[in-house]
Amino acid sequence: MKRYRQIAPVMISDFTAEAWHHPVHNHNHYELIYIRSGKGWHTIDGGRVAYKAGDVFLLGPEEAHAFEIHTRTRFIYIKFTDQFIHQQGATATPGVQSLEYLIKRRDTHLSGFTLPATDRHTVKAIFAVVSSLQRNVAQAESIVWTQVLALAIILQGNLPELQAATRPERDMQAMFCYIHKYIYTPDKLRAEVMASHFHTTPDYIGPYFKRHAGVTLREYVRQYRGGLIRKRMESGQYSLKSIAAEFGLTDESHVRKLAAG
């Protein structure tokens, strides 16, 4: 499979096509794709999703995709790397947390986002701003960043809450999404709080999670939180104090301990 590689932290592409000339491919970056006009099919990891004007897709590096264009389509892309996320995010914001959550919530990558009319209008305006910056993107990275954060907040705000289901794989997907959403709020990740959310008991949820995930609930939370913290520290853009405050940690030594794994 072809893999497209991007060196620049962020790139913008606005183009119109009557036929799709790229093979099924993946990337080394993330892609926010806006359908400005047109319709057709979007193939993502072997599944097919109909697209139309106003739709938004978020793809991670490993998702393989291609388009099948039925009517002339205008695409607007924001392509960005992990470097872009963490060199821009010097101050933790709800937008950064929303973006990290969207990146982890893989079910949205495979289906795109369903937005109400008011948000579709706002998203259209945001992508118009993004498109206007494509010839000067290197000098306008901070402006692009604010647009990405605004999009992340809007997109997360339209996601349904995943609830436990009758199938273990759906149960686990719901649990992972819950953890990723509340990773910045330690009290929400206590076994008794999660058990109440999923209508079970603290004595059951821990063994259930370990049986299906292969690690304990506490270890998964620790590993995921530690990975996010390491990315912030490696960027050099965050103070230990700000990281501790963002993740609800008691002090800077706790931050260092989690980052060390």
Automatic annotation (TrEMBL):
Record carries keyword Cell cycle: no
All copies of domain HTH araC/xylS-type, residue ranges: 173-261
Listed GO MF terms: DNA-binding transcription factor activity; sequence-specific DNA binding
InterPro entries: AraC-bd (IPR003313), AraC_XylS_family_regulators (IPR050204), HTH-like (IPR037923), HTH_AraC (IPR018060), RmlC-like_jellyroll (IPR014710)
Pfam families referenced in this protein's UniProt entry, alphabetically: AraC_binding
Key words of the record: DNA-binding, Transcription, Transcription regulation
Position of the signal peptide: none
Keyword Ubl conjugation attributed: no
Protein name as it appears in the record: AraC family transcriptional regulator
